[in-house]
Design a protein that fits this description.
Layout (H helix, E strand, L loop, with lengths): L4 H7 L1 H8 L4 H18 L3 E3 L5 H7 L2 E2 L9 E5 L5 E4 L5 E5 L5 E8 L6 E6 L2 H11 L12 H25 L2 H21 L2
Antiparallel strand pairs: 1-3, 2-3, 4-5, 5-6, 6-7
Length: 197
Protein backbone atom coordinates (compact mmCIF):
# COMPACT_ATOMS: atom_id res chain seq x y z
CA UNK A 1 0.00 0.00 0.00
CA UNK A 2 1.32 3.42 -0.94
CA UNK A 3 0.68 5.86 1.89
CA UNK A 4 -1.04 9.09 0.93
CA UNK A 5 1.23 11.39 2.93
CA UNK A 6 -0.80 14.50 2.13
CA UNK A 7 -4.01 12.96 3.48
CA UNK A 8 -2.19 11.56 6.52
CA UNK A 9 -0.78 14.96 7.50
CA UNK A 10 -4.14 16.64 6.91
CA UNK A 11 -5.80 14.10 9.20
CA UNK A 12 -3.17 14.40 11.91
CA UNK A 13 -0.56 17.18 11.51
CA UNK A 14 1.02 16.23 14.82
CA UNK A 15 2.48 13.07 13.26
CA UNK A 16 4.69 15.14 10.94
CA UNK A 17 5.42 17.76 13.60
CA UNK A 18 6.59 14.96 15.89
CA UNK A 19 8.81 13.47 13.15
CA UNK A 20 10.21 16.92 12.31
CA UNK A 21 11.09 17.62 15.94
CA UNK A 22 13.87 15.04 15.85
CA UNK A 23 17.55 15.89 15.46
CA UNK A 24 17.31 16.03 11.64
CA UNK A 25 14.39 18.43 11.67
CA UNK A 26 11.86 18.81 8.88
CA UNK A 27 14.45 18.02 6.18
CA UNK A 28 15.09 14.57 7.62
CA UNK A 29 11.38 13.91 8.15
CA UNK A 30 10.67 14.78 4.51
CA UNK A 31 13.63 12.67 3.31
CA UNK A 32 12.23 9.74 5.29
CA UNK A 33 8.82 10.24 3.63
CA UNK A 34 10.52 10.15 0.22
CA UNK A 35 12.47 6.99 1.02
CA UNK A 36 9.41 5.25 2.46
CA UNK A 37 7.34 6.32 -0.55
CA UNK A 38 9.82 4.78 -2.97
CA UNK A 39 9.88 1.50 -1.01
CA UNK A 40 6.08 1.41 -0.89
CA UNK A 41 5.86 2.02 -4.64
CA UNK A 42 8.35 -0.62 -5.75
CA UNK A 43 6.81 -3.20 -3.42
CA UNK A 44 3.24 -2.50 -4.56
CA UNK A 45 1.08 -3.51 -7.51
CA UNK A 46 0.53 0.17 -8.38
CA UNK A 47 1.87 2.68 -10.88
CA UNK A 48 1.19 6.41 -11.21
CA UNK A 49 -2.13 7.31 -12.84
CA UNK A 50 -0.36 10.18 -14.69
CA UNK A 51 0.81 8.01 -17.59
CA UNK A 52 2.93 9.87 -20.13
CA UNK A 53 3.12 7.60 -23.15
CA UNK A 54 0.31 5.26 -22.16
CA UNK A 55 0.03 3.73 -25.65
CA UNK A 56 3.72 2.85 -25.64
CA UNK A 57 3.56 1.28 -22.18
CA UNK A 58 0.43 -0.67 -23.11
CA UNK A 59 2.24 -1.76 -26.27
CA UNK A 60 4.95 -3.20 -24.01
CA UNK A 61 2.19 -5.20 -22.28
CA UNK A 62 1.59 -3.11 -19.15
CA UNK A 63 -2.11 -3.23 -18.16
CA UNK A 64 -3.42 -0.22 -16.24
CA UNK A 65 -6.53 -0.24 -14.08
CA UNK A 66 -8.64 2.73 -13.08
CA UNK A 67 -7.17 5.24 -10.58
CA UNK A 68 -7.76 4.25 -6.95
CA UNK A 69 -10.79 5.96 -5.44
CA UNK A 70 -8.97 6.46 -2.13
CA UNK A 71 -5.78 7.76 -3.77
CA UNK A 72 -6.27 8.68 -7.45
CA UNK A 73 -2.56 9.42 -7.83
CA UNK A 74 -2.04 5.68 -8.38
CA UNK A 75 -3.76 2.86 -10.23
CA UNK A 76 -3.37 -0.92 -10.18
CA UNK A 77 -1.07 -2.18 -12.91
CA UNK A 78 -0.18 -5.62 -14.17
CA UNK A 79 3.32 -5.95 -15.62
CA UNK A 80 4.42 -8.28 -18.41
CA UNK A 81 5.92 -11.61 -17.36
CA UNK A 82 9.39 -11.11 -15.85
CA UNK A 83 9.05 -7.34 -15.38
CA UNK A 84 9.48 -5.65 -12.02
CA UNK A 85 9.58 -2.30 -10.27
CA UNK A 86 13.10 -1.28 -9.21
CA UNK A 87 14.30 1.55 -6.97
CA UNK A 88 17.02 3.90 -8.15
CA UNK A 89 19.64 5.52 -5.93
CA UNK A 90 17.44 8.65 -5.82
CA UNK A 91 14.35 8.35 -3.63
CA UNK A 92 12.09 10.09 -6.16
CA UNK A 93 12.97 7.89 -9.14
CA UNK A 94 12.29 4.22 -9.80
CA UNK A 95 12.09 2.09 -12.93
CA UNK A 96 10.13 -0.60 -14.66
CA UNK A 97 12.69 -3.20 -15.63
CA UNK A 98 11.98 -5.92 -18.17
CA UNK A 99 12.92 -9.60 -17.97
CA UNK A 100 16.32 -8.87 -19.51
CA UNK A 101 17.15 -6.22 -16.90
CA UNK A 102 16.58 -3.26 -19.23
CA UNK A 103 14.91 -0.10 -17.94
CA UNK A 104 11.73 0.26 -19.95
CA UNK A 105 10.06 3.10 -18.02
CA UNK A 106 10.98 5.77 -15.50
CA UNK A 107 8.72 6.41 -12.52
CA UNK A 108 8.79 9.67 -10.60
CA UNK A 109 7.19 9.75 -7.16
CA UNK A 110 7.66 12.63 -4.77
CA UNK A 111 6.10 11.37 -1.55
CA UNK A 112 6.61 14.58 0.45
CA UNK A 113 3.24 15.54 1.92
CA UNK A 114 3.43 19.20 0.85
CA UNK A 115 4.09 18.58 -2.85
CA UNK A 116 3.11 15.00 -3.61
CA UNK A 117 3.37 14.07 -7.29
CA UNK A 118 3.82 10.96 -9.44
CA UNK A 119 4.09 10.08 -13.12
CA UNK A 120 5.46 7.34 -15.35
CA UNK A 121 6.99 7.64 -18.81
CA UNK A 122 8.42 5.02 -21.17
CA UNK A 123 12.13 4.77 -21.80
CA UNK A 124 13.11 5.41 -25.41
CA UNK A 125 15.59 3.38 -27.42
CA UNK A 126 17.70 6.56 -27.64
CA UNK A 127 17.72 6.73 -23.83
CA UNK A 128 18.65 3.04 -23.65
CA UNK A 129 21.52 3.66 -26.08
CA UNK A 130 22.61 6.75 -24.09
CA UNK A 131 22.79 4.63 -20.93
CA UNK A 132 25.01 2.14 -22.77
CA UNK A 133 27.41 4.80 -24.05
CA UNK A 134 27.56 6.83 -20.82
CA UNK A 135 27.12 4.18 -18.13
CA UNK A 136 28.39 1.04 -19.81
CA UNK A 137 25.12 -0.89 -19.55
CA UNK A 138 24.88 -3.84 -21.90
CA UNK A 139 22.91 -3.48 -25.13
CA UNK A 140 20.49 -6.35 -25.58
CA UNK A 141 18.40 -6.50 -28.72
CA UNK A 142 14.96 -7.97 -29.23
CA UNK A 143 12.40 -8.24 -32.03
CA UNK A 144 10.03 -5.56 -30.73
CA UNK A 145 11.66 -2.62 -28.93
CA UNK A 146 15.47 -2.49 -29.11
CA UNK A 147 15.67 -4.04 -32.55
CA UNK A 148 18.92 -3.71 -34.51
CA UNK A 149 17.15 -1.23 -36.82
CA UNK A 150 15.84 0.82 -33.87
CA UNK A 151 19.32 0.91 -32.32
CA UNK A 152 20.83 1.99 -35.65
CA UNK A 153 18.25 4.79 -35.94
CA UNK A 154 18.98 5.82 -32.34
CA UNK A 155 22.70 5.95 -33.14
CA UNK A 156 22.07 8.26 -36.09
CA UNK A 157 20.00 10.62 -33.91
CA UNK A 158 22.59 10.55 -31.13
CA UNK A 159 25.42 11.21 -33.59
CA UNK A 160 23.51 14.16 -35.07
CA UNK A 161 23.05 15.60 -31.58
CA UNK A 162 26.72 15.04 -30.72
CA UNK A 163 27.75 16.74 -33.98
CA UNK A 164 25.57 19.76 -33.13
CA UNK A 165 27.38 19.96 -29.78
CA UNK A 166 30.77 19.65 -31.49
CA UNK A 167 29.88 22.48 -33.88
CA UNK A 168 28.60 24.70 -31.05
CA UNK A 169 31.66 24.19 -28.85
CA UNK A 170 34.02 24.59 -31.81
CA UNK A 171 32.47 28.00 -32.57
CA UNK A 172 32.99 29.01 -28.94
CA UNK A 173 36.54 27.67 -29.03
CA UNK A 174 36.19 25.18 -26.17
CA UNK A 175 38.42 22.25 -27.10
CA UNK A 176 37.50 20.29 -23.95
CA UNK A 177 33.86 19.94 -25.00
CA UNK A 178 34.72 19.40 -28.66
CA UNK A 179 36.82 16.45 -27.49
CA UNK A 180 34.07 15.19 -25.17
CA UNK A 181 31.37 15.16 -27.86
CA UNK A 182 33.75 13.82 -30.51
CA UNK A 183 34.42 10.83 -28.24
CA UNK A 184 30.67 10.34 -27.78
CA UNK A 185 30.10 10.54 -31.52
CA UNK A 186 32.78 7.88 -32.05
CA UNK A 187 31.12 5.58 -29.50
CA UNK A 188 27.76 5.95 -31.22
CA UNK A 189 29.43 5.29 -34.59
CA UNK A 190 30.93 2.07 -33.22
CA UNK A 191 27.50 0.89 -32.08
CA UNK A 192 26.01 1.91 -35.43
CA UNK A 193 28.58 -0.23 -37.22
CA UNK A 194 27.33 -3.24 -35.23
CA UNK A 195 23.63 -2.69 -35.81
CA UNK A 196 23.36 -1.10 -39.24
CA UNK A 197 21.02 -3.20 -41.36
Amino acid sequence: MIKNTTAAVRQNPLVFIDAASGSGGADQAIAEQEKAGQAQLVNSDRLPADIRGREVLEGFGVVFGEPDAADPMFCPATLPEGWRREASDHDMWSYLVDGQGRRRASIFYKAAFYDREAFIRPETVVGYLWSHVHNGTALLTDDVWATPAALADACVLAMEHAQEEIDTWARIGNAKYVEKYTAQCEKYAAVLAQYRV
